Amino acid sequence: MKTIYIIAPYPRGQAPSQRFRFEQYLSFLESEGFEIQFFPFIKEKTWKTIYAEGKVFKKILGMLGSFLLRWGLIFKLRKADYVFIHREAAQMGPPIFEWIIAKVLRKKYIYDFDDAIWLPNYSESNARFHRLKAYWKVKHCMKWAHKITAGNDYLAEFAKKYNPNVQVIPTTIDTANYHNQTIDYDNEKLVIGWTGSHTTMRYLDELVPILQKLEKKYDFTFTVISNEAPTFQLKSLQFVKWTKENEIDELLKFAIGVMPLQPDQWSNGKCGFKALQYMSLGIPSAISPVGVNTAIIRDGENGFTPSGSEEWIDALEKLIVDKALRNALGKKGQETVELKYSVNAQKQHYLNLFQ
Questions:
Q1: What's the gap between Cα 300 and its chain centre?
Q2: What is the DSSP letter of 133?
Q3: CA 83 from chain center: how many Å?
Q4: Least crowded by CB within 10 Å, which of 15, 131, 188, 345?
Q5: Alpha-carbon 125 to chain mean position
Q6: Sheet holding 2-8: strands in order across?
Q7: Residue-wise pLDDT tens digits, 238-287
Q8: Distance CA 301, CA 61 (A)
Q9: Is 219 helix (H, G, I), strand (E, B) or coil?
Q10: Residues 6 and 40: beta-carbon distance below 8 Å
Q11: Among residues 214, 213, 316, which one has the least CA distance to residue 259?
Q12: What's the pLDDT tens digit per position in 35-91?
């Protein structure tokens, strides 16, 4: 039995970038005869404090402990048949672990990433630490890798500057075991919804005045599922605290899903995960035509791609007033996910990485 050592930033089952990039393939790989060893940089205890306000001393102690565990891992890696690194071996500092793995241990590692992680991106709660991230190290992690898997074409083109062995594997949805239900199109309660972390909530700013206008004409609830409550001035606003346990149940209450983005480098690197979540559950979606979104959504066929206030108002009004349209777009969205962006559609590509 061959062993795959997974080196990742976060504890298993906690971070969307891991859950929907590679974690949902691990049981499949085990069924194919591989042994999986999972090594997060941040342990559960540190994870609970890392994004909280303050607690600087606990954060520092947690990070020091994480570095010590990483050094211990180096001595175990000789046993690995395959090494798979998601984003980075350590969340702070230079790429010392990647260098040791590639240059000292001579291990051919697979490098996986799903965002424009060479660009600074951080939460306010950790602003004082962000310079320690060493964003410049990404290009070295890519250069030393044996293979690279990128979440979309934009990310792949960046990676190809440093390594020719790049494969696009989109972020995917487990439509068999997790996102395996469909919303009730006959539900009379109209809910427009958005889900995401507090770090991406800023993208909703452009949508607030649009929703304020729509509130004057239509009766709906605007639900935000996140780890922190928004402060928008909306009569329709409802906040739902995100948990892994309630995620699907709360999404199934949506009648319409939204994903506004700004056309910048960071957004171009995103992998359309929100849209894919909505579509997998049959939720008709309106998403900004930025980056990979233009490949996922065919405007008017399996969703809408509004740009600018007038197009957003037009798209949302059509979805609000026309239940049959919501039903048709929702079902087309499900078909799109199942065909191209499901675990079942991409699992052979993951298996091929280790053959």
A1: 25
A2: G
A3: 22
A4: 188
A5: 20
A6: 34-40, 2-8, 82-86, 109-113, 147-150, 166-168
A7: 999 998 889 999 999 999 999 999 888 878 888 889 999 999 999 999 99
A8: 52
A9: coil
A10: no
A11: 316
A12: 999 999 988 777 667 666 666 777 778 778 889 999 999 999 999 999 999 999 998
Residues 126, 42 contacting (CB under 8 angstroms): no
Give me the sheet containing 191-195, strands edge to edge. Answer: 237-241, 221-226, 191-195, 256-259, 285-287
Ramachandran angles phi, psi of 34, nearest 5° = -95, 145
Task: Name the 3-class secondary structure at 6.
Answer: strand
pLDDT digits (tens, 9 = 90+) for 284-343: 999 999 989 999 999 999 999 999 999 999 999 999 999 999 999 999 999 999 999 999
DSSP sequence for 157-204: HHHTTT-S-EEE----B-TTTTS-----TT-SS-EEEEE--GGGGGGG
Query: Tokens representing 129?
Result: 């630490």
Distance CA 239, CA 315 (A): 23
Task: Give, rounded to a whole angstrom, the gap between the first and last alpha carbons of the chain.
Answer: 13
pLDDT at 200 over 90: no
Sequence-ordered list of residues with C-beta below 8 angstroms from that of 47, at least 6 positions apart, any chain: 10, 11, 14
Q: What's the CA angle centered on 45, arms 42 and 50, to 5 degrees?
A: 60
Integer CA distances (angstroms), 100 to 71, 77, 92, 281, 346, in order: 10, 10, 16, 43, 31
- Strand ranges (DSSP E) for the chain? 2-8, 34-40, 82-86, 109-113, 147-150, 166-168, 191-195, 221-226, 237-241, 256-259, 285-287
pLDDT greater than 50 at residue 125: no
pTM: 0.87
Q: Which amino acid is at 33?
A: G
In order, the DSSP letters of 56-107 are HHHHHHHHHHHHHHHHHHHTTGGG-SEEEEES-SSSSS-SHHHHIIIIIS--
- Distance set, CA 75 to CA 8, 28, 70, 93, 320 (Å): 17, 27, 9, 20, 58
Map out the domains of the chain with their CATH numbers.
Answer: 2-169 (3.40.50.2000), 191-340 (3.40.50.2000)
* Distance (Å, whole) CA 68 – CA 73: 9
Contact criterion met (CB below 8 Å) for 240 and 250? yes
